[in-house]
Amino acid sequence: MPFTSNQTFKADPQLFCKTEGVYYWNHRDEKILDGCSGLFCTPAGHGRKEIANAVFQQLQTMDYSPHFMRANPTSFELAEKIANMLPEGINRVFFCSSGSESVDTAIKIAYAYHHANGQPQRQRLVSRERAYHGVNLGGTSLSGMVKNREIFGQGIPGVVHMRHTWLTENQFTIGEGEQGAELADDLLRAVQLHGVETIAACFVEPIAGSTGVLVPPKGYLQRLREICDQYGILLVFDEVITGFGRTGKAFAADSFGVIPDIITMAKALTNGAQPMGAIAVKQSIYDTIVNAGQPGVPEFFHGYTYSCHPASCAASLATLAIYEQEGLFEQAAVLAPLFQEAIFSLSRLPIIKDIRGYGLLAGFDVESDSIPGSRGNDLQLKLFEAGLHIKTTGDAGIVAPAFISTPSHIEQMTDILHKVLSQY
Ligand SMILES: Cc1ncc(COP(=O)(O)O)c(C=O)c1O
């Protein structure tokens, strides 16, 4: 099973069998509040009939179409819709089926861009400790989580890791911490150590989500942008979690006022109803790659059987329409202060070592016991029994409610967290 202790699961299976709104029902027909939008996927809530109907209709009209040398019109319609939501200048979209695929595709786009631009030696990639960029080989190499890397070989060559941005000085800060912008100078050190002409791209999650919600220090992303501009390095924001409203704006790039060159996205792109990922790039990247091509020959030798799957495109179009019609990103922004205040009320509990948060995303650390990660695992089991689903990574809990949540859902979530965390 993916990221699961098979032995623990088999001893006491935890099954989700039904969903509606912000709730799951388990195999005992008990109601469980979804405190993590599934896995950050379902901001519009579960069981959205508009999406189900759009997928059903699409499958009846055309179930599948190949996307090598052919296309289906909905993919262009969707690409245009996404381009209109993206920060200015990022307007070319390539589709895949997951966040991991979006990251590995972004790596290849970075290689292809520099190759087409007459700098094929730019092959190093810079990422960060405590990053999560999915599980494909490129993303695993970029990631900064030891368990995800240690037994999977050397990874792709030439990946350099900057330090992560968790600092004791910023503990228990809502939003961006005051300290730590200078950590971005690790990119400068990589340039000085390896030579600027060798670095293709710098990959960061604007907010590192899966390792416990590490919000960037004030000025950190701006500094990365400056260094990338100075040395011709592509800046890639992995917005697989933060994309589509999680920070209160369409993308974290908007919230932090920093425009990268490439954005990866997935999850909320279809409200989780169909597997889909996407990579968006600046026009200049697209032009450079396409203009370097030979007539009649693909300019980018990359793609997936399920790129632009018609059912995924239909799900995404229906999802984006819901976000717009219901003003869900604005709703997320309105709910965010109440949510942050509720989560930060946990700081009174002795077991809580730190809390961080931005928008409708928050992480908290519990004090480890003798085996790191075992308390986090115990916590998520106890929360599930108490009727709340959240994600844990190691000894960090991660909370990401749906944007349709009401203050009473937030209260219910916080009550369960207080009750369970008080037991330690
Ligand atoms: C920032 C980031 N990138 C990539 C991924 C991988 O996405 P997927 O699980 O859809 O492959 C994730 C998944 O959580 C993620 O958080």
From TrEMBL:
Gene3D superfamilies: Aspartate Aminotransferase, domain 1, Type I PLP-dependent aspartate aminotransferase-like (Major domain). Keywords: Aminotransferase, Pyridoxal phosphate, Transferase. InterPro entries: Aminotrans_3, Aminotrans_3_PPA_site, PyrdxlP-dep_Trfase, PyrdxlP-dep_Trfase_major, PyrdxlP-dep_Trfase_small. GO terms for molecular function: pyridoxal phosphate binding; transaminase activity. It comes from the Bacteria. Its cofactor is pyridoxal 5'-phosphate. One of its GO terms (cellular component) is cytosol. Pfam families: Aminotran_3. Belongs to the class-III pyridoxal-phosphate-dependent aminotransferase family. This is Aminotransferase class III-fold pyridoxal phosphate-dependent enzyme.
